[in-house]
Amino acid sequence: MELKANQGRRKIIEKEGILLETYPNVFVVKVNDDQTPRRMSYSYADVLTETVEVKIKENNMRIGCISV
C-alpha cells in the first residue's frame, strides 16, 4: 500500500508499506525507512479528514472519503 500523510507545517510524507494490524480506532502500517523498518499508526478519522491518504498499490484505488 502507498501512504501519504500530512504531518503539519507543510511536511508531507509519502511511504510504501504493509498493513500490519487493524483495531477499532486505528490501523498500523509497517514502512521501511532508510533500512530501518518502522511501525506507524493512524486513526480512521485521519483518513476521513484527508490528513492521511491510502492507496492500494495493485490497482491504484484510493481509500478515503469522496468529495462531492
TrEMBL record:
Pfam families: VEG (PF06257). InterPro entries: Protein_Veg. GO terms for biological process: regulation of DNA-templated transcription. This is Uncharacterized protein Veg.
